[in-house]
Design brief:
Layout lengths: L8 E4 L2 E4 L9 H6 L6 H24 L5 E5 L9 H15 L3 E4 L5 H12 L3 E6 L13 E5 L2 H10 L4 E3 L4 H15 L8 E4 L1 H16 L12 E4 L2 H44 L8
C-alpha cells in the first residue's frame, strides 16, 4: 500500500499548521536578526525577550528528568539505505544499552536513525526540532519532542543535558555544532565532554586542513586535536562516551568523599575547641 503523501506543514514554535500555509512568512530567528528603523521594534524586542525566556523555561522543564543522555548530530539528507543511517541507529542503540537516552535535532536522516536506535534500545528518544523556512517535522521515532523558535536556545539543550556528542557526516548545521562544542571545551565552559566523529573518510579532509592551517600557523594548540575521537567502529564510538562518563562519575564520587571528610574534620576540630573553652566541672566528692 503506497504511503499517504504528507500534507505541507508550517510551524510557529509549538504550533503546527497543515494544509493552507502562508508562504514567505518569516521565522522567529529571521525576525530577531532583522534590522528595522521603526520605534515599535524596540517594544517588540521586549516581548521577544520574554518569549526567549519562555523557551528556556519550557526546555529546562521538559528535559530536567532526562537522565544521562548523548546528543547525536548528522545530515538530514541521508536516506534509510545509507550506511551512515544504519551506523547511527546502531550507535544510538549501543549507547541506549549502556543507559544513555538519546537527543537529536528531531528531523530526518541521521537524526531519525539515532531516535530509531534509542527506540530499539528502549530508552527515551528526544527530539529538539527547530522552526525553519523549509519545514523539518519531528520524525516518527521521537518520544519526547520539542519545537524551538531560536537556534541558540536549542543549542543550550543539546549541550546542557548531554554527556557527549557523536557527530556523523553532515552539512553546515552539523559543522556548527561540532565547532561550538570544541570551542566550549577548549575555553573550559564545559568539562569532561567527549566528542566522537564517526566516519573517517568523511572527516579526514577537514582534520588534515586543521593540521596544515590552524595548527601549523599556531592558531590552535597540538593538544586541541585530542579533543575529538575519530572512528568507523560502533563499539569504539560507544566506548569513548562510556569511558568519559564513568571517569567523571568516579571523580565526582571522590570529590564528594573528600568534601564529607573535610566537613567531618572541621566539625571534630570545632567540637574539640569548644570542649577546651568550656571544661567540664570537677566531679563532687
Amino acid at each position: 500500500m503506497p504511503r499517504r503523501k504528507k500534507e505541507p506543514e508550517r510551524r510557529r514554535g509549538a504550533v503546527v499548521m497543515r494544509g493552507g500555509t502562508r508562504p514567505g512568512r518569516r521565522t522567529e530567528d529571521q525576525e530577531l536578526l532583522r534590522t528595522r528603523a521603526l520605534p515599535e521594534f524596540r517594544e517588540g524586542d521586549t516581548w521577544r525577550t520574554l518569549r526567549i525566556m519562555g523557551e528556556f523555561v519550557e526546555g529546562f522543564d521538559a528535559l530536567a528528568d532526562a537522565g544521562p543522555a548523548v546528543t547525536i548530530f548528522g545530515s538530514a539528507r541521508v536516506g534509510r539505505r545509507n550506511r551512515y543511517y544504519a551506523a547511527a541507529r546502531r550507535v544510538a542503540a549501543a549507547l541506549g544499552k549502556e543507559g544513555f537516552n538519546i537527543i537529536t535535532g528531531g528531523g530526518p536522516g541521521i537524526m531519525e536513525a539515532a531516535n530509531r536506535g534509542a527506540r530499539d534500545a528502549g530508552v527515551v528518544s528526544i527530539g529538539c526540532n527547530i522552526e525553519l523556512p523549509f519545514e523539518q517535522g519531528l520524525n516518527e521515532f521521537v518520544d519526547l519532542g520539542m519545537e524551538f523558535r531560536y537556534f541558540f536556545v536549542r543549542k543550550v539543550m543539546f549541550v546542557k543535558y548531554a554527556e557527549g556528542f557523536v557527530i556523523f557526516p553532515g552539512g553546515f548545521g552539523t559543522l556548527d555544532e561540532l565547532f561550538e562544542a570544541l570551542t566550549l571545551i577548549q575555553t573550559g565552559k564545559v568539562e569532561h565532554f567527549p566528542v566522537v566523529l564517526y566516519g573517517k573518510d568523511y572527516w579526514r579532509g577537514l582534520l588534515q586542513w586543521i593540521r596544515e592551517k590552524p595548527l601549523y600557523e599556531e592558531k590552535i594548540s597540538p593538544e586541541d586535536l585530542d579533543l575529538v575521537t575519530v572512528t568507523d567502529d560502533v563499539e569504539q564510538a560507544c566506548a569513548a562516551i562510556v569511558a568519559s562518563y564513568r571517569s567523571r562519575e568516579r571523580r565526582e564520587e571522590r570529590e564528594a568523599e573528600e568534601r564529607a571528610s573535610q566537613a567531618a574534620n572541621k566539625e571534630a576540630v570545632q567540637e574539640a575547641a569548644g570542649g577546651a573553652k568550656n571544661p567540664a566541672p570537677p566531679a563532687a566528692r
